[in-house]
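Box 4.2: Ligand-aware structure prediction
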Amino acid sequence: MNALILVDIQNDFLPGGALAVPDGDAVIPAAIQLMQHADIIVATQDWHPPDHGSFAVNHPGCAVFETIDLHDLPQTLWPVHCVEETPGAAFAETLDLARIGKIFRKGTRPEIDSYSGFHDNGRRHSTGMADWLRGRGVTHVTVCGLATDYCVKFTALDAIDEGFHVTLAVHACRGVNLWPSDVEEAIDEMRQRGVIIS
Ligand code: VGL
Ligand code: ZN
């Protein structure tokens, strides 16, 4: 059984959003296309409390995109984004939410960030996504969404670690590229770890 994982296709990562990914809205028609052929669809949703430790504003004197130590993990500081219950955290409105079997929220604890849809960056808590998928007989996952160099990458690599066969639908992903080669390097790393790039 194959599952499609839609990663963080949320308003704040789309043009006009608080942490807009360049050309991010290009993933929407591509994701809609993939959804038409998927048996099982799940989605991850970045869902932060206002006092989240990944927000630069919560660290006086620190700037956006700076890296700090957050409870012993390196943390890139971001603009305030995907605050729980706000329009920025909502899914792109053209996605057919009725087709999504389960939504896994992440980044919900203020003290730790979570790029992967499977568990947080310190691997301290699981979202339950791997067990949920296995419980439905899923052996293969296709990953798409935002952003290639953060949440898509960590979700795809964790899927490998969880024992799934993983395909990256690269045409249905866009990245942040804080450094110009970040997306390219993320794709290389995924390929080296066994992700099929298609
Ligand atoms: C993401 C940065 C911060 C992502 C989420 O969805 O890739 N990136 N939070
Ligand atoms: Zn976030």
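In the box above, the bound molecule is zinc ion. The mean pLDDT is 98.
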